[in-house]
């Protein structure tokens, strides 16, 4: 029973007078209020910072989406131009084969005693590494699709 009484006495802040206890309670209450106020301010600042970060990220996301759309448009234009070039290559190859067959016929007809000098039609598409003109490679640049 003595230990219970000592615990009750020691919890009262070493048995000080009531005025000192009231002053300590008042200081603790003021300290707790100030701590709560600082905590609320920290939370408010964190919320503002997070809101600002969300707005910044949403803006960056819009910019990225716009850039992607521009790149897709440029890709589609390039793909379309590439398809046109492929079709033209097929058409020109067919025309070249037709012209070569005409030359072959002319050679067969002229082989009967008519001597003629035949023009040599070379097909640069068939031998792309043996071009008759200087070849300058195209260099890719980071902004080539931004135009």
Top keywords for this entry?
single chain; 147 residues; mainly alpha; 2 helices; 0% strand
Name the helix and strand elements from N-terminus to C-terminus, one letter apiece. HH
> Portion of residues in helices?
55-70%
Morphology: rod-shaped
- The oligomeric state of the chains shown is single chain
Beta-strand level of the residues, as a percent range?
Answer: under 5%
CA distance, first residue to last residue: 91 Å
Structural class, please? mainly alpha
Largest sheet: none
Low-confidence stretches are: 6-13
Using only C-alpha atoms, the radius of gyration works out to 45 Å
Number of helices: 2
How many strands appear in the DSSP assignment? Answer: 0
Compute the average pLDDT: 80
Note the topology.
Elements: H1 2-10, H2 18-110
Q: What would your notes on this structure say?
A:
It is a single chain. The protein has 2 helices and no strands. The protein has a domain at 20-109. The termini are far apart. By secondary structure, the chain is mainly alpha-helical. The chain has helices spanning 2-10, 18-110. Mean pLDDT is 80; it is low at 6-13. The longest helix has 93 residues, at 18-110.
Write a brief caption for the model.
This is BZIP domain-containing protein. With 147 residues, the protein is mostly helical.
């Amino acid at each position: 029973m003595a230990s219970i009484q000592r615990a009750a006495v020691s919890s009262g802040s070493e048995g000080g007078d009531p005025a000192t206890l009231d002053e300590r309670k008042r200081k603790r209450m003021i300290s707790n209020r100030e701590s709560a106020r600082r905590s609320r301010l920290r939370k408010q600042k964190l919320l503002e910072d997070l809101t600002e970060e969300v707005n910044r990220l949403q803006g960056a996301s819009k910019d990225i989406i716009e850039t992607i759309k521009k790149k897709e448009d440029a890709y589609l234009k390039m793909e379309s131009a590439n398809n046109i070039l492929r079709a033209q290559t097929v058409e020109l190859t067919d025309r070249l084969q037709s012209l070569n067959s005409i030359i072959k016929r002319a050679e067969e007809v002229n082989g009967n005693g008519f001597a003629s000098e035949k023009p040599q039609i070379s097909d640069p598409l068939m031998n792309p590494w043996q071009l008759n003109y200087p070849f300058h490679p195209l260099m890719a640049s980071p902004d080539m699709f931004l135009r």
